[in-house]
Amino acid sequence: MRIAARIPEIKERDMAHAATSTAPGSYMLPPRQAEIRGQAETLAAHFAERQREIRRHPFEHGELHPELWAEIRERGWPGLLVPPDQGGCDGGLWGMALVLETLAASNLVLWMPVLTAAIGHAIAQVGPDTARERWLERIAAGETLLALAATEPECGHNLFRVQTTVRPAGDGFVVDGVKAVTSGIDLAERVLVFGRTPGEKEGDKAGFTAVLIDPEAAGVGYEELPMRGREGVRQFRLTLDGVRAPAEDLVGGTGGGLQVLWPFTHVERLLTAALCLGTARYCLSRALARAKERTIFGKTPIGAEQAIQHPLARLSARLDAAQLLVYKAAADFDAGGDLLTIAGAANKAKVLASDLVYDAADHVVQTLGAPAWDEREGILDVFLDARLSRAGPVSQELALNFIAQHVLGLPSHR
To answer: Whole-prediction pTM value?
Structure first.
């Protein structure tokens, strides 16, 4: 009888808190990370109603939305992954993940800062000093954005088969090749190009080299792909025909391109997962709002139906679980944990978060019904971006290959 008597009280209390049911869980953040998330929540609330304007701005003006980006720069967030002696601030990868996740939960998705932060971290880790001195303070100040050109038409994400060449010539390099899909060239000051370096002598095994290319340099051509602004940026096919890059635009060492990609991928995977978490939370909040107010049969909202309830409840459970994995992996990264362990966790986080956001986007379309197909709502962009996350920046299959072989110790057929 005591339990039964409390049921109305519990329901009333739960309904009173329904508006916050999609807020991040009660995971205990360290003080600095809690401060960052609180600031990000305030900023997200300020710009939430302008989400469509913010998404369209790069396409219409060739820059990130200046008001939002100025607020981000003022808080020092572009420098969260940059060493303090190079102009960065404390907060680390975990802090950056919290910023991107929180903004994405209001459908404020920023992809170029992911690439820039990941490339900046690689520069900080592998140098050389000329690159550190030239780029890190500018990245930390939010003065520059960087893009990545890695995948190719014939090999996709299998970068060991790239045909682009980065050939030493005089006091620099000459770059030739074609890159399949490169995001945000029109917004970037430099593009990090990953290519094959011919051996110095005949019969030498080729290595790999990464150089920063000026997208306006002679010999650079790019054609926009009609992908309707996936990830909130334009996508391009990049052609490099005898492009000259000075020696100071080398990242890592000649033949050391793989050492550049290794630190890059940890950051890219985890920040991609953070964006997916935020977007999944946005989808869940939109679906819940619709399920609580939409009535079709009688006066009871459609959210009373288990066909609507159960998928959303399952998404909520998956969201909290995926968030814990992303936070733990980011915390381990910031603490200087074992990089192979972090790489495994980063790939797991990317797989889980990408599947999660796709399912969340699918369910918000189903729950909203016809309004989801109205392009003014922006849900179609959310759905297509969610689907893209399962194919890039690395495919689910390649991420699972890494987990299977490097975490579980299973053999490779290659």
So the answer is: 0.92
Which residue blocks in 84-160 are alpha helix, DSSP H?
Answer: 92-104, 112-126, 129-131, 137-140
- Domain 23-140: give its CATH architecture: Orthogonal Bundle (1.10)
The domain over range 146-254 is classified in CATH as 2.40.110.10: yes
Instruction: Report helix angle 306-334 to 92-104, nearest 10.
Output: 160
Domain spans, the chain: 23-140, 146-254, 258-407
Could you give the 3-state DSSP secondary structure of residue 175?
A: strand
Cα three-residue angle 78-80-85, rounded to 5 degrees: 105
CA distance 99 to 77: 8
How much is the mean pLDDT over the chain? 91
Angle between helices 257-293 and 92-104 (to 10 degrees): 40
At residue 274, what is the residue type? A
Alpha carbon 95 to its chain centroid, in Å, reads 14
pLDDT at 247: 94
Helices and strands, number each (H, E), in the chain: 13, 8
Burial of 162 (0-12, 13-18, 19+ CB in 10 A): buried
Contact 188, 113 (CB under 8 A): no
Contact 368, 379 (CB under 8 A): yes
Q: Beta partners for 244?
A: 174
Q: What pLDDT does 372 receive?
A: 96
Distance CA 307, CA 319 (A): 19
